[in-house]
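Recap slide: Protein SCO1/2, sequence and predicted structure.
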Amino acid sequence: MRWIAVTAAAIAIVAVTGAAWLYTRAPGDDPFAPCRSAAVAGGTGAIGGSFTLVDKDGQTVTDKDVITKPSLVYFGYTFCPDVCPLDSARNAEAADLLAERGYDVTPVFITIDPERDTPQVVGEFAEVFSDRMIGLTGSPEQVKAASQAYRTYYKKQDGDDEYYLVDHSTFTYLVLPETGFAEFFRRDTTPEQIAQTAACFIDHS
């Protein structure tokens, strides 16, 4: 029995030591570890990437043209009756809070309804919320590719040909120009929480 007890104690010590080693190593492996609130299935590299879209002036732009500074990227549509305007206002407020603290962050609105959201429409929609916000559209193929890169969901509802609705996911993504996708925010995240988390990531980038 004594040997069993000794062996069990030795195993416990190894387990504790191993856990401590993992704990102390983690921050060094991930510079953003102090900022993360949750793990991302498949890793952060599974979200984000290159895209080609169209800006408010009808000019073709890529992710390199758009994400030149830390950005809050959101996929929605301008005919959305409630969710998209509320989320866009929240993201614009978060960007304003960050600006007050000395951080330059760009809110980006990417439509998932290119049929109705022309360059002019998305441009005017974005300007309603912030002169910092960039509105983007594109061909159905370009929009689909951008949505797939960020693993978002959208589907046009059946019904009225003119006033149809679009089901879609509602995450906001923090994207850094040098490292890409950093974090996502749910609808219930407040502007203050977004600003605090975004500032942490920017400080550690």
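The longest strand covers residues 71-76.
The radius of gyration is 21 Å.
(End of recap.)
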